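User: Please go through the entry that follows and flag anything odd:
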Amino acid sequence: MASKKTIEIVKSTAPVLQVHGEAITKVFYRLLFDKHPELKDVFNMSNQKRGVQQKALANAIFKYAVHIEKLEMLGDTVETIVQKHVSLSIPKEAYPIVGENLLLAIKEVLGDLATPEIINAWAEAYEDLAVIFVKREEELYKSKEKSKNGYRGMKEFIVVKKVIESNSITSFYLKRKDGKPIPNFIAGQYVAVTLEIPGTEHKHTRNYSLSDSNDKDYLRLSIKKERGNPNGVVSNYIHSKLTIDAVLLVGMPSGEFILKETENPIVFIGAGVGITPVLSMFKKAIKYHNNITFIQCVLNSESLVFENEINQLINDESRFVKIFSTPLTTDIVGENYDYRGFLSSEILNSLNIFKKSDFYFCGPTPFMANTLKILDSLDVKKESINYEFFGPVEALN
């Protein structure tokens, strides 16, 4: 546990970190990759170029400085990072490397403001935080290794089936290359996938949600083809070059965006490729829960995915609602879709969806921000709101 003096110093630097945090994390990643280019294998370099990871790390560091006296306040943030680290098989040996470069980044950005006293305090604070992460991650590693068909690290999987779902999403069905059963997972979780792309300087690792139920003999990843470069370097390769019998390295299923036990009505909302984790949860929930509303928000019928799968599972006490933001001229309201535009409180009210429901949703950042705003306007309790978002939560405000 950090000393009282260290706690005071770290808390006093919180305002500075709020202002300079992103600049510090940009320098940190530059130093880290210059000295340890092999770590590019486990980072999403597209997110690096877009600044997503820098913002997320800056946000986490700021929260740590603010709550260093009450680390339990960081519970959700810590668990999200831990789950991501475990999916990527980040070794404990990486923490000293990260700490060293983080301190160097603080010195470089803050200059004379980063006195020896401040640097020493942050060194002690970081060491305490690293202990928390390493301990929790080891617990998860052991738990996953002992789970049904579990393992530590990553294993080779082979593509056994490839299905085009829409003009931008394709599903890949994976099985263990060694013939062993797939690992058990909880509906809503994701896996890390590592592959090599010819002509690029390092391996590429991405997290993809599992889009099917957990009672199959395969893992299904439904991946959106992103536009542009570098944003789409991995997804474009996967869509165009990943064929049947292709081999991928796959980590253990991870993530805490999972279905909770409840007697309340359940509302699943998926926008774009964000439908994948909520579809997995829907397939689980529909087996024991009748009062379910599944809402899919897409551009039009060309972007609609898994319609047949959902319709086959919907029962008399559940419903499937489609919202098209830009319907095609051939799309007919009441036939191809139910509402035109974007998700709104008016649509939820017309569906008689009230604040007593449990909500699960995932999608692009604007959709996520809008959904949170809608649920807040309906006075939905915080514990009834469940979502997955990779990035600083402030981006949704």
About this structure: The chain is about 40% helix and 20% strand. The mean pLDDT is 89. The first strand starts at residue 154 and ends at 164. The two ends are 33 Å apart (CA to CA).
